[in-house]
Please model this.
Amino acid sequence: MKTSGVQVKNGTNGKSRSARQYPCESCPLRDKDIFRKFSGSELDFVQVFKTGELLVEAQSTILREGASSAHLYTVLSGLAFRYKTLTDGSRQILNFVFPGELIGLQAAVQSEMQHSVESLTDMVLCVFQRERLWELYQKFPSLAFDITWLASREERLLDEHLLNVGRRPAVERLAFLFLHIHRRAEAVGVANGDGNLNMPLTQQQVADALGLSLVHTNKSLRKLYDRKLIAWQTRGVQILDRKGLEELADWEEEESRLRPLI
Amino acid sequence: MKTSGVQVKNGTNGKSRSARQYPCESCPLRDKDIFRKFSGSELDFVQVFKTGELLVEAQSTILREGASSAHLYTVLSGLAFRYKTLTDGSRQILNFVFPGELIGLQAAVQSEMQHSVESLTDMVLCVFQRERLWELYQKFPSLAFDITWLASREERLLDEHLLNVGRRPAVERLAFLFLHIHRRAEAVGVANGDGNLNMPLTQQQVADALGLSLVHTNKSLRKLYDRKLIAWQTRGVQILDRKGLEELADWEEEESRLRPLI
DNA sequence: CGTTGACTTGACCGTCTTCAAGTTTAGTGG
DNA sequence: CCACTAAACTTGAAGACGGTCAAGTCAACG
Model:
């Protein structure tokens, strides 16, 4: 496993990790119409709540299980995943993290992280101070509600993932995962319409997400390819036949709902 | 599967489901020292927030996937579980629900339930109106924070469950589940010190929680019994050798933290 | 005393894991 | 640009783990 630490860079002066490049009101993410429109005062508060940006290299450990971070992050760009490991070294990927989602809420409301987070790509994170979260709850009930909303959404994603891992055979499990990831990627513009998830994954990571061995994952990917449903290209998946995948995976689309971006 | 609807009874007059038997300040659950002490005003608000009590029979469906409930519940007594089903009928139990925990938060913050909830025993639920949740967020930031805390805790439990299902072989998986359940049961006084979980479970339910077949669950239970770790008695487990189980399941105890009771 | 749901057990078979040995690809230094 | 290396990916073989099928037993209950 990668154990490289968090790498800090920044755009121009090479000095501060908290260079604030995007004011929240002109946040490039916020423009997407899947996010609910914030009021002026909400936007002002988020702007003040945000203490800077953190640039993270691909394959870095952002948070480690057992640590108690002073920060809470929102992903501005880039991808990551949450995972836990057993003492025998086997790893379970719990979920993937997309732009607009929070990292470190667990440590912020409880006192310690119970999972680790690792980046898949270079990332830009908006940094919030943990202790100011309480201030948010006091001053902006609407934002407090949004945070609960995000926590509840994460729970829903986990429910679906658990059902997938617990009850579907390997090929269907893969099909479902890719649809699941693809929907989320599309929503925030990571995937374009061409079926290509622009998401650098290794087969080992897919295996760890699905509770499968690497070898069996590889062979099941081949079966999906033989059926012309997906193609694996080094560090990535391409969806060839969405309808076919959906049929295989017992998939039902859900209407996308407006979501908060904090 | 059981499809009996929610059964409504009540103590004395057989008429109203909202007979309020316990005022919050003398709530028998709240006395337990695992719950954080509420201030007078918090208690007053919860008291007003609570519109009544709902009595539910064992094996009832409390909430159904796809439904949008007008209510949010806190379990006052009794046990339940959350689950999802696939179109082929197979079921995955996502988590168990113990006294002091919320039911229906997903429907309350999002608009629909994405899982179902079924009671294991007769239960008493405190009923809250969903639309007043927003009022809670506006007037009582501390309680709002508590709700986020509870959502985050549920996420943590799911993480652990997913790791268990995804990465442990059957015997260890059972061992871990029973320890997990036992810890939570003890915390709220469902289990006494004798190793007996007073929790009516069927082997099919255990299988559905762990992503195993009924037959294999049965045979794995026997292996645990042969090793004198647990005993299965009709609709229940007894832990015979906690230390042995912990060793088998790669278990580490965590300090119990004060939690909110809303 | 018959029925029903829970539990048990054996036999067989398929999925998935492990082991072992590859090949291919991307990155690095000469 | 090429050789070398490490990481990612691929494939086959053998066997374990877990699923399915089938046929029970057992206890509770009307």
